User: Which sequence fits this backbone?
């Protein structure tokens, strides 16, 4: 049987379609940058880009976590509340124990996030509550807990140690520290999804949960871990949020989940699960933050931001569904053509078979 | 057993005294035979002969009521799919489930990725190994190809590669060639031979007897859940295979009533759906029962779905009672007096959580709900009258259909369509998975309907049913109409020969 | 008699009634004024708009979909009413336009889900934000100062000697109407069928796509009606209307016994759930529990209700399996006898 070179056509078509998504974001990003550069003052300044970088950082970290969850065919809407909780606890802890090493505070924030993510995971896997409802519920519960803890107070900037606030202020090599943190998280997240068997299982679980179970993948445990990662990263994002905004009150982090989901959806992570990359999600976060920054500079109301987020989600989901459909048909047609060609090449025509009687 | 086997080698897998009953119906009864190592063993039989039940038992999906499964001479309990996996027994179905979003290599190694230093996915090794496997089985696609665009034949090869990579010893192929072209079938057979070189045995389930003769070393024939014969393929000509498959005394399930046959009510010409069926032309007359025979996957259900408006026709024309008919939707078909009882009772025929009366009225709500307002009393009356007419055993019309037996469920589906007072009724496997008593009831009803002037198209894989009921038998094979037999000319052998594409023995 | 009583007791609605009574007793312990007629009648008034949205959402959930954009639809509708009224037209004209806009927004959701076959979760997640943003883009400032009393009475007026809130009547009346639509019409039956088994519904000649689109239209329409009550009660037509009410709306539906996976549920349950939530929030307020902390309780109710529903269904399924096994054994005996009878 002769091998190999025939399938190239369909192969490259599919790969092209996948790359298209990331290329698309780049193009959109380029268009947005050019647009704002032309229309807005101070868009192309270093300080503005450092601003963008800091905003991106928080959303990017959330987007990495959300990617894990969406890959498994779920969603986590509670991340905004988790950010609020961990942001407050981070700054409150630091305000009360000024000498505590920052690393310890990070650990506390992440640990809390992991715990809250675990609750989400249990509700979805053991409780069999659809993820969207479960996380709408925990969104409210966690936010309520934050209100209980803050009791109307909020931590003020002057109460926090310099080195903490420096995380947002200092810019080693021109990039804010927070952005470096996000970069590291992105790299680790991408590596995890690409190189660890655990991460690869997320793709299988989201693509076909039944087949995954049949292949021996512990679906429940994987989904649970995805929610825990999302929660843990939200905890980290909360720490970063506190460093950035210093004054943390009970409404901190409200609606951040939207930014995360928008970034992820724009970034090509399929809401049906099974495909998408951290790179795409991070690019999506960059695009979202850039556009929002541009809107701000153009003195457009912040409500354009919400409108944009929502529209972007609807458009992205629609395009994804339509493109997948078209792609599937195109690939199938190509393949069938190849098979017909192969048949003709081999000279096989409908032949009579010997029938022993 | 196999007295004709040369040396008595320990069979790779052996079944002894296997029986399994489902809800009062014997799926398999006291089946015993063995599969030799590095051989292809064909399993042949009609629908309902018990083949899929045996596959389920071998793959650990169900447990047999009695009997043992032996692997290399040792009795083993195949209690779960993972147990079967561990024993090296793997099944491959007609259209394998795959991870559409992943590549070929990822599909082959799903959940078992090769690792570097035990921690990290070794993509290079995975690609290399997948390449090697694909090459070994003669696949012409690369390991990096996205599975989404691959054909059914390709997916089967992926399954085989998967099985090989997990050191399977027995690969069960259930109707693998149904969706393959001739070239692809040749490919597949070449792969099977290569599997032998690896010491892997294959159970090959197919109704294409010419393929069975070509690839199988041994053939086992099942009939009505019982083992009939196991013989080397070389010593089993087709005619005898068929005789053994269907040879059963023709005790009439229910003598058919004579019905007056009138003019054509449904006429089809050149029905085509690309890749599924082509150029199907037939007609059904008033009072006539036309049987539509053919093996599973031959396209009969697909034809019915197109006529009823669920799927789209690519070409062809239809007339109902002389006037042209364009199948646009089930509602449109119903309005013209055409009803279709679907093959999948539980998913397509019934809304399971609903009661008998609500299911019964579902297709006629526009007619019995004037101004859109439901009339529960009418629904109940409707349900009760059908419960009586069809002898549906239930506590009350309010009983939920999910809790009914298969036979009674089927009667409810039938009620639903009869309530619509159709003039043409297409029945798709109406007595599938139904107990003997209900079968008789359903046959009685069908016969009765014909005497009342309905035109009935009966799609069935049960030969006795078709022979008992049909005035004419149309045989479909691979999407084409290959034969039409009158009631007198129709015998079990004749039908199966036409369905299998075997020329009659002189 | 005992079996009837047991059957009645085991219904989800009965449990809700018991809970309403239990919570009522708790509230009584917090304030002796609780059990007065005036208070009880007025209890639910601030939540009627939530209840109206929940009634609309019920249709969507029974059809096995979800619509989390309802609060945003209300916001758009309310802003539209305010803006149009400000240009000098009659309030009723503005209200009609608002209602039409709300329905259109709902139908747009329905189009994406039913015609384009997109997942309702993702679609309404997007429109939740898009519609909210749209509301702000239409008008981001303070709402119209005063609406005519004739209109605001819908939300805040009283009849029959200043005792019965109009909003309550609106709610009960709408519930009766929607209940009729859902439980007594062909359309309602179609919704249950589509929610239980879309394929079987299709084979039965039910226009599945139209039904799915229609339920989203109803959801949007009810958000519009809820907008009337909202304007009346809160006197506001700002774009942040109903922000944060989604939790209560979804909880009301689920707590009302509507299966989140589709195919079952009743209006009565949702009505009871709305009253329960109103009562609970009222009680917590009496107990000086802040709004956001109250959300913790409601959130737990939401999750608890689904867990309970899942648990009950699991029990029923295993009980069913046992009954089926027994029934099948009986079949064997009977059919054996029949088979012998035939040949």
Assistant:
């Amino acid at each position: 049987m002769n091998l190999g070179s025939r399938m190239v056509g369909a192969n490259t078509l599919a790969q092209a379609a996948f790359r298209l998504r990331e290329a698309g974001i780049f193009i959109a990003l380029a268009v947005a940058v050019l647009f704002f550069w032309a229309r807005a003052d101070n868009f192309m300044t270093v300080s503005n880009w450092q601003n963008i970088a800091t905003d991106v950082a928080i959303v990017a970290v959330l987007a990495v976590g959300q990617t894990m969850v969406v890959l498994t065919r779920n969603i986590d809407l509670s991340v905004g509340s988790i950010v609020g909780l961990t942001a407050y606890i981070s700054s409150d802890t630091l305000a009360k124990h000024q000498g505590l090493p920052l690393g310890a505070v990070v650990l506390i924030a992440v640990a809390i996030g992991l715990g809250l993510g675990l609750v989400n995971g249990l509700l979805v896997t053991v409780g069999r509550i659809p993820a969207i409802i479960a996380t709408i519920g925990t969104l409210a519960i966690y936010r309520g807990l934050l209100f209980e803890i803050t009791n109307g107070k909020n931590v003020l900037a002057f109460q926090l140690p310099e080195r903490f606030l420096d995380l947002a202020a200092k810019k080693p090599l021109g990039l804010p520290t927070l952005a470096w943190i996000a970069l590291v998280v992105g790299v680790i997240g991408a590596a995890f999804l690409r190189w660890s068997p655990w991460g690869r299982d997320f793709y299988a679980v989201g693509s076909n949960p039944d087949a995954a179970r049949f292949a021996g993948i512990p679906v429940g445990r994987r989904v649970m871990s995805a929610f825990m990662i999302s929660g843990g990263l939200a905890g980290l994002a909360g720490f970063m949020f506190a460093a950035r905004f210093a004054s943390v009150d009970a409404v901190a982090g409200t609606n951040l989940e939207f930014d995360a989901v928008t970034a992820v959806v724009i970034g090509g992570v399929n809401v049906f699960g099974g495909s998408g990359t951290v790179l795409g999600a991070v690019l999506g976060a960059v695009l979202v933050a850039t556009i929002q920054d541009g809107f701000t500079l153009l003195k457009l109301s912040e409500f354009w931001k919400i409108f944009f987020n929502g529209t972007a989600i609807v458009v992205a989901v629609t395009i994804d569904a339509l493109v997948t459909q078209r792609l599937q048909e195109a690939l199938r047609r190509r393949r069938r053509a190849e098979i017909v060609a192969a048949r003709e090449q081999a000279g096989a025509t409908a032949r009579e078979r010997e029938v022993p009687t | 057993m196999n007295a004709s086997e040369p040396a008595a080698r320990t069979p790779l897998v052996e079944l002894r005294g296997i029986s399994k009953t489902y809800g009062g119906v014997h799926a398999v009864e006291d089946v015993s035979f063995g599969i030799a190592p590095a051989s292809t063993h064909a399993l042949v039989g009609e629908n309902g002969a018990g083949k899929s039940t045996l596959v389920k038992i071998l793959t650990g999906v169900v447990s047999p009521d009695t009997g043992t499964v032996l692997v290399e001479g040792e009795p083993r309990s195949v209690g779960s799919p993972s147990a079967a996996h561990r024993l090296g027994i793997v099944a491959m179905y007609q259209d394998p489930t795959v991870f559409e979003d992943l590549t070929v290599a990822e599909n082959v190694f799903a959940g078992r990725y090769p690792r570097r230093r035990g921690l990290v996915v070794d993509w290079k090794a995975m690609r290399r190994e997948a390449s090697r496997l694909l090459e070994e089985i003669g696949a012409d696609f690369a390991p990096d190809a996205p599975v989404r665009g691959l054909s059914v034949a390709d997916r089967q090869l992926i399954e085989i590669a998967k099985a090989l990579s997990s050191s399977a010893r027995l690969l069960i192929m259930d109707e693998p060639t149904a969706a393959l072209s001739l070239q692809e079938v040749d490919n597949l057979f070449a792969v099977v031979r290569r599997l032998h070189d690896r010491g892997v045995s294959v159970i090959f389930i197919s109704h294409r007897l010419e393929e069975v003769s070509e690839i199988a070393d041994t053939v086992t024939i099942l009939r009505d859940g019982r083992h009939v014969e196991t013989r080397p393929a070389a010593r089993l000509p087709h005619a005898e295979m068929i005789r053994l498959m269907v040879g059963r005394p023709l005790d009439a399930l229910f003598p058919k009533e004579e019905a007056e046959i009138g003019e054509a009510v449904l006429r089809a010409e050149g029905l085509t759906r690309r890749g599924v069926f082509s150029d199907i032309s037939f007609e059904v007359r008033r009072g006539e029962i036309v049987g539509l025979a053919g093996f599973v996957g031959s396209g009969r259900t697909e034809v019915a779905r197109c006529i009823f408006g669920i799927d789209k026709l690519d070409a062809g024309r239809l007339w109902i009672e002389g006037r042209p008919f364009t199948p646009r939707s089930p509602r449109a078909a119903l309005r013209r007096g055409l009803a279709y009882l679907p093959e999948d009772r539980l998913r397509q025929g019934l809304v399971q959580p609903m009661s008998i009366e609500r299911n019964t009225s579902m297709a006629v709500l526009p007619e019995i709900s004037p101004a859109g307002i439901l009339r529960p009393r009418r629904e109940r009356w409707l349900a009760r009258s059908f419960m009586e007419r069809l002898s549906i055993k239930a506590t009350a019309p309010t009983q939920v259909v999910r809790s009914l037996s298969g036979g009674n469920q089927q009667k409810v589906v039938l009620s639903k369509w009869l309530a619509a007072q159709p003039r043409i009724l297409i029945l798709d496997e109406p007595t599938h998975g139904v107990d003997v008593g209900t079968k008789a009831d359903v046959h009685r009803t069908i016969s009765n309907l014909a005497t009342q002037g309905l035109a009935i198209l009966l799609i069935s894989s049960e030969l006795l049913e078709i022979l008992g009921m049909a005035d004419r038998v149309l045989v479909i094979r691979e999407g084409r109409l290959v034969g039409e037999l009158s009631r007198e000319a129709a015998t079990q052998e004749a039908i199966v020969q036409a369905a299998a594409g075997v020329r009659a023995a002189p | 008699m005992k079996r009837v009583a047991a059957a009645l007791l085991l219904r989800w609605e009965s449990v809700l009634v018991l809970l309403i009574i239990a919570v009522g007793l708790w509230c009584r312990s917090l304030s002796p004024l609780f059990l007065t007629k005036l208070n009880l009648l007025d209890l639910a008034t601030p939540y009627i708009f939530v209840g109206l949205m929940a009634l609309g959402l019920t249709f969507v959930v029974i059809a096995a979909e979800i619509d989390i954009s309802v609060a945003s639809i209300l916001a758009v509708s309310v802003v539209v009413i305010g803006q149009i009224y400000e240009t000098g037209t009659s309030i009723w004209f503005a209200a009609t336009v608002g209602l039409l806009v709300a329905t259109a927004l709902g139908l747009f959701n329905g189009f994406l889900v039913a015609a384009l076959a997109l997942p309702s979760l993702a679609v309404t997640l997007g429109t939740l934000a898009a519609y909210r943003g749209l509301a702000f883009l239409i008008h981001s400032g303070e709402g119209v100062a005063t609406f005519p009393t004739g209109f605001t009475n819908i939300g805040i007026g009283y009849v029959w000697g200043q005792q019965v809130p109009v909003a309550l009547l609106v709610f009960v009346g709408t519930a009766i109407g929607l209940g009729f639509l859902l439980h007594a019409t062909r359309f309602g039956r179609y919704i249950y069928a589509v929610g239980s088994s879309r394929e079987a519904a299709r084979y039965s000649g039910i226009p599945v796509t139209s039904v799915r689109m229609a339920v989203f239209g109803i959801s949007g329409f009810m958000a519009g009606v809820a907008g009337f009550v909202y304007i009346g009660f809160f006197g506001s037509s700002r774009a942040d209307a109903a922000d944060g009410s989604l939790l209560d709306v979804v909880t009301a539906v689920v707590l009302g016994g509507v299966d989140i996976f589709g195919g079952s549920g009743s209006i009565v349950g949702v009505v009871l759930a709305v009253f329960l939530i109103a009562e609970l929030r009222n009680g917590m307020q009496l107990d000086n529990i802040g709004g956001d902390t109250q959300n913790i309780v409601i959130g737990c109710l939401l999750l608890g209700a689904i867990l309970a529903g899942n648990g009950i269904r699991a029990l029923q399924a295993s009980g069913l399996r046992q009954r089926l096994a027994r029934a099948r054994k009986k079949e064997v005996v009977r059919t054996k006898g029949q088979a012998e009878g035939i040949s």
User: Anything to note?
Assistant: The first helix of chain A runs from residue 8 to 39. The mean pLDDT of chain A is 85. The interface with chain C takes residues 75, 123, 127-130, 132-134, 136-141, 143-148, 250, 258, 261-262, 265, 271-272, 301, 303-314, 317-318, 321-322 of chain A (CB under 8 Å).
